[in-house]
Structures are given as C-alpha cells and as structure tokens.
Amino acid sequence: MEDEQTLRRYITCDAERCGQKHPAHRCSNCKTVYYCSRDCQKAAWKRHKVVCHSVDKMKRLTAVIDDLNQMEDITGISEGNAETAGPCGIYLEETIIGPIVFNKCKHAFCYACLIHYQACRRTSSGASCPYCRSEIPDLSQSMAARVSLITARVQRGDLSVEDRHQLLDQALADVQKVCDNGGPGMKIVFTHDRARLLSLRGESKVALQELQDAIPEWTEMAEKGAKIEAIMMKCRAMNLDFNEEVKKLNLGTPGSVLRKEALVQLH
C-alpha cells in the first residue's frame, strides 16, 4: 500500500552510533535490519550475526510442512492444559490462564503473564525461562511463526474449504490473543498479519479497510518512535538523562510509540 510505504522514512541505520535516515541496504538473510552503507553493515556484523536468522530457511520449512503438529518443533512452544499445568510463577497467579509450555524445559506460564514478562525483560542475548533460566523462544516471535506456518499451509491450495477456514480461524485467534495482550508495536505488526489472513479467507475488503484505518495511528506512533530514537542518540553523545529528555517533549504514555523493530516487520 502506498500509504504504508510512507512509514519507511522512519527507519534508520542499525549500525551502532549511526542512525542515518533512509538506509538503502537491508540484511539479505533475516530482512530485519537496515544499513546506510556496506561499511556500516560490515561494522555491525559481529553483533548482528548472533540474532540473524534466515528468512529463506523458514520459507523452506513452510514449503514442505504437512502436519501442523510440526509447528511445536519449529516454534518451540505448545499449548498446555490449565488443569494440570499448576500455578503461574511469573505473577504468582494460582490459576493459570491460557497456559503456554516451552518444549525445552516443559515449564508453563499464563499467556498474558509471559508476554508481559518477556516485553519487560527482553535483551539482545535472548529470553530465558523465569523458572530455570534455560534459553527459550520469544513468545511473540513464536506466535508470528505459527501464523506464518498456517498461512503457508493454506496457500498451498490443497485443502478443503472447511479445513482452510478452520486453519485460518485458528491463526486469527492467535493474532487476536497477541493483540489483546501485547503492546502497541506488537499489535501493529499482528494487525498486518490479521489483514493477510482475512484476505486469504475471502474477506479482502475487510482486510483492506482495517489496514487503511490503522495507517493514521501507525504514522503518529512512528513519528514518536523516530523522536525517541533521536533522543537516545543525543543522550549517548552528550551523556544526558534519557527519561528527563523524553519528558521535555511530552511524547505521551509509555508504549504509545512505534519503534523501528515493528516498522521493519511491516516491510
């Protein structure tokens, strides 16, 4: 969409201490970072390669997947049983709601508690289990992978109408769960996924309208996000207090900005 493409002007170079606007180069492997020059890309590679995952590899996985139970192996998560999962250890809730189980360590947590926990504790080194600290997948990325896998399976075109709609309804439910519990940036990205799923379900007009309705909010949040990025660069260069500088500009409530990570996912 032409209106959506205007958001790209808020994406900046990912090289440390650069921040140049309108970067021309994009990582060809993961498609999630941008650089203004090959020199910046080369300088940032040592740090970036740790989190650089191949988009083409994921496409190959989705092209051959037949049994959607394989999603658990790819996403690293599965849905648990609330009756047997026990209490949630994040906010000490006695009743676990919408339990998510990590395949590696088998620990279960409330979906909403977990997505809030990971949003608050996300670091460049990845996520860890609140119980045992073993490495676990990022829940929002795992949910995005689930949606992508279902989309790829539907697009193969060999399903009955009933099976096709059943899978799309499952993916739409996953998207709604993220939108209900995640932050504004996460909601933006999954709104885009929701529109794609609606289009596959034959509701193209509804999908287009949802995207058009979201554009003004996206643009406003992107402008705030760009200001936040600029303040961060200024504070690093001049050793200023970030929180104080943000207050001066009155950028609204926490989480009301669209950061570059969410913008990149839209492209």
TrEMBL record:
A molecular-function term among this protein's GO annotations: zinc ion binding
RING-type domain location: 88-133
InterPro entries, alphabetized: Znf_MYND, Znf_RING, Znf_RING/FYVE/PHD, Znf_RING_CS
Pfam families: zf-MYND
Ranges where the MYND-type domain occurs: 15-52
Protein name stated in the entry: MYND-type domain-containing protein
Top-rank taxon: Eukaryota
Keywords: Metal-binding, Zinc, Zinc-finger
Keyword hit for Zinc-finger: yes
The species this protein was found in: Fistulifera solaris (Oleaginous diatom)
